[in-house]
Amino acid sequence: MKLYGGVRRKIWCRPNMKLFSSVPSLTSLSDIETQLRVLCEKPNSQFADAVSLFNRAICSNLLPSGSVCNSLLEALVKSKNYEYAFSVYNKMTRIDISPSFRSLSGLIEVFVYTQKLEFSLGVIGLIMKRGFTVNVYGINLILKGLCRNSEVDKAVVLFSEIKRNGVLPDIFSYNTVINGLCKAKRLEESLSFLLDMEATGCCPSLVTYTTLIDGLCKDGWVDEALGIFKEMKRKGLDADVVVYGALISGFCNEGSFDRGKALFDEMLEEGISPNVVTYSCLIHCLCKMGQVEEATSMLNTMMEREIHPDVFTYTSLIEGLCRRGRATKAVDLLNCVLKKGEKPSVITYNVLINGLCQEGVLDEAYKILKMMIEKGKMPDVVSYNTLLMGLCKNGKVDEAVELFNLILKDRRYVQPDDMTFNLLIQGLCKADRLDEAMEIYNVMAERGSSGNLVTYNILIGKYLMVGAIDKALEMWKRIIELGLVPNSITYSIMIDGFCKMRMLNVAKGIFCKMRVSGLRPTLFDYNTLMASLSKESSLEQAKRLFLEMRNANCKPDVISFNTMIDGTLKAGDFQSSKELLNDMLQMGLAADALTFSTLINRVSKAGQLDEAKSLFHKMVDCGFTPNACVYDSLLKGLSSKGETGEIINLIHQMAHKGVHLDSELTSTILICLCNISEDLDVEKLLPQFSQEMSKRTSFSCNELLLKLQEYHPELLGSEK
């Protein structure tokens, strides 16, 4: 038993405690306290030995004084030996030694940096309970820990509580919370803290403004950030390269290169040297805009200023070249980068692989993948997915399957994700290899993935395409069983599929179900259903759907109008078709080749030849090339009116334009020629199709003459 500070304590020591030979032997209490001070004050403080001595002293009932214990705790916190500090604090509480204010403040640091933030808040309560005044330093530590741990709500609550309790936040407090709010994209709240800061007389610093400007720019609030920037300058604070860099990056990210460049020029005028980040932002923006030459020029300027480009800079240029269809040039750039000793990232290689795949240069893409591995950069799932997409897009499905099998078999490769499976399933479906696509789907299930909505959309679409309705509905049922929610693409695929199978009632039912589920039908859905209704002569239903579409703020396009114009003309309602055409033009939609073809075809069949010819000339004036169907309709109309001269002119025009003479158009020409006057020499009247045209067409001029000679020799002045 021992008396200490008027309190009786009984200290038990664990039996067989292992002692360290390096720790001084225990003599008297004064010796122990002296040794503890010496150990903590040495240049290379022996804190492990000090803590060991402290523990042995307690077990031997030689309890150091409160000042010595607190000094040890403070030294441990200062040296960032947080675990030792927490251990000493625990021992102090067991022997009823009260921690000092400095020890408690240190304990806050211990809990913050060891991710025990709830305990640090408890220490604040303990400080107040012991009658100490809470200072802003400890509060700032907790605020920093909470924001770093993404617990911004708790930081805001703590900030409000300390103000209510009379603790005035300082600039560090405000900056910490503002930074946390910006990172959490709670920008309006961060701006309100700036106002509160100014209202309490705490002047914002360059750090405050930089934090706000950076946060606003990253979330697209660039104009607001520019306003803060101007306010900062009005208050006499000089912007640095970081502030300018944040603004330039913000403008470049939203595609406003000119505004970003203007700030860059302003920065140079202010005498502020740009850094690699500033240049890289501008180069990246130029590359996204397709201005690779300008980006290269800026790169050269950057290097003249002895600012070394980084991997991001080079990756931007490589991506820019690939966007312009110059992937082979991008390969040359990569080789130059490697010669300079730079280490491209996985993203750099992936960008180049994608560019090569987009251009169909798959052998080169494989070489880049191999190079990537040789340079010590292991491909990720994006690398392989990009290659798979390129192979499938270029019809090399067998090679895609081979690559996929390699990924599955070799453990050195990354694990495929849902996108990997989906790419291969889609590639096989497009190649009409549905059974193999289902095998991949089964492999996917065996590996523990049920697939996602994209998987089922692909399979449903293909099953409907081949008429396997029961299989398509099985996939639909599977979607529901997995708890997936069909999206607008799912419904669109089913509407389109059932329309193509002429199961209009089912398609209309799915269309209604789509609306009931809260999804808005797309323009594609309306157009698909209207076209099918029009083909089935359900014009009134198509009209109602067209009206509904416009009322639902789904703006019709040229396809919508073409469908309705064709339907009304087919029904003989010429007035409605003219009104639809006027509506289309008033909406700012220009008639396309199909619009004119539809009108000419239907008007010609109705015997309105003058109207058909007028539309034909308007079509040509608009820059559209009439197709065989248009010429066929006009020829039939002219033949019915006996317009021989115009028939011959039209045939000459067809020869000049290189119109494809299919069997139907050839038959129409023959009929027209049979109906002309016997006094005319058809052989001289017919145009001479070019040799090149004769090779490309189904029938040449010579073949026309042969057919005429066979069936109507009198037109050629010979006998059958």
Write the layout of secondary structure elements.
Layout: E1 2-4, E2 7-9, H1 29-41, H2 47-59, H3 66-78, H4 82-94, H5 101-113, H6 117-129, H7 136-148, H8 152-164, H9 171-183, H10 187-199, H11 206-218, H12 222-234, H13 241-253, H14 257-269, H15 276-288, H16 292-304, H17 311-323, H18 327-339, H19 346-358, H20 362-374, H21 381-393, H22 397-409, H23 418-430, H24 434-446, H25 453-465, H26 469-481, H27 488-500, H28 504-516, H29 523-535, H30 539-551, H31 558-570, H32 574-586, H33 593-605, H34 609-621, H35 628-641, H36 644-657, H37 663-674, H38 682-685, H39 691-696, H40 701-711
Antiparallel strand pairs: 1-2
Helix pairs in contact: 1-2, 1-3, 3-4, 3-5, 4-5, 5-6, 5-7, 6-7, 7-8, 7-9, 8-9, 9-10, 9-11, 10-11, 11-12, 11-13, 12-13, 13-14, 13-15, 14-15, 15-16, 15-17, 16-17, 17-18, 17-19, 19-20, 19-21, 20-21, 21-22, 21-23, 22-23, 23-24, 23-25, 24-25, 25-26, 25-27, 27-28, 27-29, 28-29, 29-30, ...
Number of strands: 2
The 3D shape can be described as elongated
**Could you give a short account of the major beta sheet?**
2 strands, antiparallel
Question: Pairing-aware structural class of the strands and helices?
Answer: mainly alpha
Count the DSSP helices.
40
Per DSSP, what share of the residues sits in E-state strands of 2 or more residues?
under 5%
Q: Please report the distance between the alpha carbons of the first and last residues.
A: 140 Å
The Cα radius of gyration reads 40 Å
Largest sheet, spatial ordering of strands: 1-2
Mean pLDDT: 85
- Helical coverage, percent range: 55-70%
Low-confidence stretches: 1-23, 690-699
